[in-house]
Amino acid sequence: MEKVFLQKTDSGFKDEIAEKIGLEEIKPCYSCGSCTGVCPAHEVIADFDPRRIIHMIVLGMREEVLSSDLIWFCCLCNSCYFVCPQGIRFSRIARELRKMALAEGYVDEDFLKGLSPVNDFLQDLCRRTLFQKVKEGLRGPHTMPCWRKYTVKNG
Ligand code: SF4
Ligand code: SF4
Q1: Structure confidence by residue, pLDDT tens digits, 2-35
Q2: What pTM, to 2 d.p., does this model score?
Q3: Closest residue CA from atom 5 of ligand 1
Q4: Residue 81 belongs to a domain
Q5: Which residues, including other chains, have CB under 8 Å from residue 142's CB and lie 6 or more apart?
């Protein structure tokens, strides 16, 4: 288990992100792991774990989160939102983390260029995996408009 040094943490980190998103998106997470269980990116990059990233935000691990390559691997597919009992939309959190990482100089143009082929692969994988899972009967408390034809038909 990774050690957390409290003197290095930023207790306002979660509030900063919640404020940017405009909702109390972070605090209600109770680490059930449903998001990680359906995440297509997690299936191919085991270290990418939305539950863990949220936990790190709640702990105030600002520097570790913003400097991590992992925040760039979310393909923004919203599969996790579909199953999250708390209605947490990790894609919105990921977008804010990336904006902050860019604004604060944690990444540069070369990094983003290098990421491009990985992102193309993940986008395609996420799109195919999500629709396949929904068609196979995956259920969740939240539905995105673009999934409705599948969830209504199956529901
Ligand atoms: S599914 Fe929602 S409540 Fe559960 S760990 Fe993920 S973000 Fe937290
Ligand atoms: S939006 Fe998709 S890729 Fe990103 S954490 Fe959620 S399920 Fe994973």
Answers
A1: 565 566 899 899 999 988 887 665 668 889 999 9
A2: 0.84
A3: 31
A4: yes
A5: 81, 82, 83, 84, 87
